[in-house]
Amino acid sequence: MKIALMDSGIGLLAAAAALRRLRPDAELVLSSDPDGMPWGPRTPQDLTGRALTVARAAAAHRPDALIVACNTASVHALPALRAELEPSIPVIGTVPAIKPAAAAGGRVAIWATPATTGSPYQRGLIRDFADGARVTEVPCPGLADAVESGDEAAVVRTVAAAAALTPADVTDVVLGCTHYELVEAPIRAALDRRTGGGAYVFHGSAEPVAVQALRRLGLRPEPGLPYAGGLTVLLSGRPGTLPGAALKYAEGRLLTGRSAGVGEVVGGSVSG
Fold first, then answer.
1. Cβ atoms within 10 A of the Cβ of 265, count?
2. 38-60 pLDDT, tens digit each
3. To bridge 235 with a disulfide, which of 107, 143, 180, 240 should be the other Cys (CB 3.0-4.6 Å)?
4. Is residue 177 flagged as an active site residue?
């Protein structure tokens, strides 16, 4: 079994690590775009072109499925990716977990990039799936970039700014950018200070999208299988290795088989 994941940068680590935990036998292909990132400021047409190039590089390795491990690319490029690759390669997009977060009708905060916050796409998800819940959209300028570079000080600073915009009585927090799941620990620390340690639930997309990919292939999680899966890294279509910043996160080290750190200063376990 071979599953490919694509993103502009290292945001795909969270879903890739979830797959590695659920199916240690899976071959993983990680296709990112360091030459073209960030994708967020690009026009939808330009972003779609970059996403297609990254997907084609992954498709050349003949995966059984492709995960678009990027919220922005899922918004703008998913139809084009599916039109080109399916049905030969199932394409699984990433959607913020607004529906399960709002199910209990509590106080929901959606952390997302400034481009996604207030967008018709996110507002549509809120309209369709969050009826009855009180929803606050929280823009997180600079957070994805800080995560991408592994800049601990910038992560702490940008997380603190977003936490200050989050209601103190929040019950559910949606991480609406795949990069954010790599820094769950600093986000929890900032929200604990904001809420006084109140009870709230995180909702990420990494594990649900990994499970959905397996389901599309007619498979189920089997975390007890022997570790037998390899790792292929593509950087704007070129064979490469994970960037050094990726190894600052537990997810990156899991994928490379490294248990000890180059300094796990900003990392955190991925949210289910």
1. 15
2. 888 888 899 999 999 999 999 99
3. 240
4. yes
Cα torsion angle, 170, 172, 177, 180, sign:
positive
70 belongs to the catalytic site: yes
Query: Does 98-203 carry CATH code 1.10.3720.10?
Result: no
Counting beta carbons within 10 angstroms of the beta carbon of residue 230, is it exposed (0 to 12), middle (13 to 18) or buried (19 or more)? Answer: exposed
pTM value surpassing 0.70: yes
Tens-place pLDDT, residues 89-131: 999 999 899 999 999 899 999 999 988 888 888 999 999 999 8
The CATH architecture that domain 2-94+206-256 belongs to is: 3-Layer(aba) Sandwich (3.40)
- 2-94+206-256 and 98-203 share one fold: yes
One of 58, 125, 177, 183 is an active-site residue; which one? 177
